[in-house]
Amino acid sequence: MRIGYFCLYTPIELLYALSLKPVRLIPSQKFDLTSKYFRYDACPFLKNLFSNLANKVWEIDGIFLLSLCDGQRRLGEILKREINYLKIYEIYFPRTYNLTAFQFYYEEILDFIKLWERDLKLINKRLKEEIEILNKKKRRLLKIVDSLNFLKKAELIKEFWEKGDIPETKFLESSVSEKEKVLFLGSYYTPLDWPIAKMIEKYFTIAADSFCTVSRGIDFYSPISDLKEYLFFYFSKIPCILRRPNRIFYHYIRRKITKYKINKIILYTLKFCDAFSFEKESLKTYLKRPTLLIESDYSFDTTLQIETRIGALYES
Fold first, then answer.
1. Distance CA 183, CA 204 (A)
2. Distance between CA atoms of 15 and 115, rounded to whole angstroms?
3. Is the pTM value of this prediction over 0.90?
4. Which residues, 6+ apart, have CB-to-CB distance to 22 below 8 Å?
5. Tell me: the pLDDT tens digits for 263-293?
6. Domain positions in the chain
7. Is Coiled coil one of the keywords UniProt gives this record (predicted)?
8. Which CATH code is given to the segment(s) 170-315?
9. Cα–Cα distance between 307 and 30 in angstroms, integer?
């Protein structure tokens, strides 16, 4: 059974251990089918994700949906009502870091596991095998993409999550640039956002990023352990700005700035993404670097405005 997912907190090694095939949903196409299902100020990523699902862009049988924000919960409601061909497995993922919240999440996952397998000893055995396999693949992929420009890196990582294996990389060349280095971070980053990176790379080198759809997905490695410890790793160690407190995310991007000797920051958010919108000023204060704040809704007009502002950052 092919299970779609999009959140980085999805325990994909566990899905493999349950003999499921996880497919990460990173939309490459833009459809306009959402006006009657979503408010105008809903997340552009989630609206377009729904439209891609309605158009059956991916060959999947169900979705593992983590409800981490209000938009994701709304998406779950709409999918259950409007897309009958998909089975929706909705898991509430707590935003707060505490043991009570983790126990709630752990019990939800146990209920999900029981839909497929009741022998936890067997699951633990399979899980350790799948963790080891995926960790090896991610480490290998990290070595391949480390010297590539941002767009090629994003493309290969997207293909990796969609196919579950290392993409073909025969003729890749390292990208070395003398341009000023920037850290690129923000909301979900998909091929619909790639024109933004092309604009940035006219002026700067994107030396590092913290997008969950690009580098963050291969920066962390699950411990080869039993189910509870494994799930606690997902719950407590992978950074996300949505979590509370979110200092783990702040520390993560600070390490990137130090490692890559970053001079400037470009914070890219999708319109109406409250998680990043509310953090803009805190990020600027914490990072102590010139920071450009830009947002988009995948429209042509906003893309033109963004290029003007990137040029202004370059001149500053």
1. 10
2. 12
3. yes
4. 3, 4, 5, 10, 12, 15, 16, 64, 164
5. 999 999 998 887 777 888 888 889 899 999 9
6. 2-121, 170-315
7. yes
8. 3.40.50.11900
9. 21
